Amino acid sequence: MSLRESAIAALMLLMLIGGPALGSDEPPRNPYERDSSVTGRVERIFAPRLFTMSPDNPKGDELLVFVPNADATPLVGTTVAARGIFRWFEDARIEHSDDWSGVDEEMRDELASHAVLVASSVVTSTRRELAARRTLPRMIARQPPQAERPPQTRRSELPIAVRPGTLGDQLNSFAGRLVRLPNARVVGVYDPRVFLVDTQTELPPLVARTRVLVFIEAGALRVDAATLVASTVTVSGVARTLLGMKVTREVPWPPALTPQLVEHLDIKAAVLARSVQTADGVDLTVRVSPVSTTSAVSGRAGAAADEGRRY
To answer: Which of 3, 94, 109, 187 is deepest in the core (most CB within 10 A)?
Structure first.
């Protein structure tokens, strides 16, 4: 194949993938798609591992770069080559890092609207490597099995995007991992900390849907059952087995969810959720103390359980 034919084939592949070129006005449609390399000038530094750079391209829009394995921070005005994977901001885990605490509130709103390059390598024009010499895939490969890792290690992972139905059907592959459930349709609410979801689809299912119970880790819903049921939300948290949730009692198991009802509703998995959001990013939970959560549960459990049984 000639050089010209190779270039045309590469261009057609990019068009099929659907990812926009760097510097375009829209973020990548699939930020987990492939490794990317960007060269440009460092513009602003917010924390040792968080800065922006202006890429060297005709549409050099400022790009947010997060370097989880940074050994040094580049200086403003330095030309660097950053290599990594594009993520949506909420999937880049910046908010869970120490770097985020140093960013003021006004600037946080601006940064949260960006797609993020999670960089595994940052090299200056003098060929100095500012990040530890390892790639993100290798970092994952060297990790011990999930069950052997302490909870604080698991929390540093990037969440896996998975549909509720797929999570229930393939729970052995996801249990204990951070997951993100987009397009989750709420089909029942059992108390302010527990509700039921399945996969949102335009067509009715040909077979019974696999459903997932969502337990809110450290808070409660701030909307009532009637408002939430039939809504589409995005749930982020740790995938759990139903038995694990019962045994650990991190969130009380709703009395209305008997073994017979669990089997009837085809509930196969659970998520210990850290956030529940609408499609436009509105958080549907509120942080409350254990005492107030218990009071809220006892006061609303009956009505919420009735709402949940309708679906």
So the answer is: 94
pLDDT in tens, 107-146: 888 888 777 888 888 998 888 888 875 544 433 334 444 4
Please give the structure tokens belonging to residue 195.
């509700």
Query: Domains in the chain and their CATH numbers?
Result: 15-140 (2.40.50.140), 159-309 (2.40.50)
Angle at 253 between CA 235 and CA 310, to 5 degrees: 70
pLDDT tens by residue, 41-100: 999 888 888 998 888 876 657 888 999 888 888 888 889 999 988 887 777 788 877 788
Helix (H) / strand (E) element for 246: namely: helix 242-248
Calpha distance 88→308 (Å, rounded):
32
**What phi, psi does 160 have (nearest 5°)?**
-95, 125
User: How do the residues of the chain divide into helix, strand and coil, expressed in percent and rounded to 5?
Assistant: 30, 30, 40
Local structure of 216: helix, strand or coil? strand
If residue 97 lies in a helix (H) or strand (E), which one and from where to where?
none
